[in-house]
Specification:
Elements (H helix, E strand, L loop, with lengths): L3 H7 L14 H5 L8 E5 L4 H12 L3 E6 L2 H8 L5 E5 L5 H12 L7 E4 L17 H23 L3 E6 L23 H23 L4 E7 L13 H6 L22 H4 L1 H8 L10 E3 L24 H15 L6
Parallel strand pairs: 1-2, 1-4, 2-3, 4-5, 5-6, 6-7
């Protein structure tokens, strides 16, 4: 008899979507009219999130962007149609609740929730609760936000939650006994990998619990893109990634032999997950290059695909319980 874990792995089969690593968000969205759809995009005023905001708004969707730095957001979003912004900081549980309460007071359904904000490879910082910042921002803040917005997602009848993860999940699974690096020595990449694995497991468990209410969830790797996300990396680290040349200048994506994507290409998988009809009856899967990803090869952390531990149902259930305990919030199913 096939185990639940094997069933989860079997779902990780590419659909031959017709798109690939060079596809752009505009190409994925071509010809679609999203008028009447309401979208919330965290991180929607910078990098991949901004490009996602732009293409969805220009396709007619009403896009709300939570913002931590209003001045930067106002400059980035200026001139975009159908876009509004409201304050929110993923490190501040009170601001998450305030943002969600403001949206919920409007009484409208939420068709798409795209969780694109994140931080990467930061020095050790803790939030007011003492939680390690990468886990707090990349996962716990999004868990809390989704819970607070859950009634609006259910109201939409056919909603999607898109969680932006990373191939960086292959660095580390989740240390359920010490997620905040209180007993073990802090290592910035292990913390990042843990938070990105949490993104994938969160989407898998949310989809399992939400599909009977018409809410599907997916996670994704957007590709490697040089954006503000890399602000904590040294020149040596960026050079090793192929993002900088020997003089310290950015290397155009067109010259990186597929190692890097443009922002337009990087946003394609988020948009594909948000709108593709091929995913109408699918969820809980991890995607990349505008398609469902396969299972990763154990031979290289840089190879495509998803690690089995990141789609393991037992891990997903354990993370859900841990997240409820750490945030003090729960979903009203």
């Amino acid at each position: 008899m096939e185990t639940v874990s094997n069933m989860a792995l079997r779902q990780q089969q590419p659909l031959l979507s017709g798109f690939g690593p060079q596809s752009t968000a505009e190409e994925v969205l071509e010809g679609r009219d999203l008028s009447g759809k309401t979208v919330i995009i965290t991180g929607g005023y910078s990098g991949l999130g901004l490009e996602t905001t732009r293409v969805l708004a220009e396709a007619g969707a009403s896009v709300i962007v939570p913002v931590r730095t209003p001045k930067k957001a106002a400059e980035a979003l200026a001139g975009l149609p159908n876009v509004t912004a409201a304050p929110m900081d993923l490190l501040d549980p009170g601001s998450i609740d305030a943002f969600a309460a403001g949206f919920m007071a409007e009484g409208r359904p939420l068709d798409l929730l795209i969780l694109s904000a994140g931080i990467m490879a930061t020095p050790l910082v803790r939030d007011l609760r003492g939680y390690e910042s990468q886990f707090a921002v990349n996962h716990l803040g999004h868990f809390q936000l989704t819970a607070r917005l859950w009634p609006a997602l259910r109201q939409a009848v056919s909603a999607r939650v898109i969680v932006v993860s990373s191939r960086g999940h292959r660095i580390s699974g989740i240390d359920f006994g010490d997620p905040n690096f209180e007993q073990r020595e802090y290592e910035k990449w292990a913390a990042y990998g843990q938070s990105k694995t949490a993104n994938i497991l969160f989407a898998a468990e949310l989809d399992k619990r939400g599909k009977e209410y018409g809410v599907r969830a997916l996670s994704l790797h957007p590709g490697s893109i040089l954006t503000d996300l890399s602000r904590h990396l040294s020149e040596d680290e960026l050079r090793a990634m192929g993002a900088l040349d020997e003089t310290g200048r950015p290397v155009p994506a067109s010259r990186t032999a597929g190692r890097l994507k443009t922002v337009q290409q990087g946003a394609a998988t988020s948009v594909w997950c948000a709108v593709s009809e091929l995913l109408a009856d699918k969820g809980g899967v991890y995607c990349e290059d505008a398609d469902i990803a396969s299972v990763a090869s154990p031979e290289s952390r840089q190879s495509p695909g998803v690690e089995p531990y990141a789609v393991d149902p037992d891990n997903a259930r354990q993370l859900w319980t841990l997240s409820k305990d750490m945030t003090g919030v729960k979903f009203e199913f």
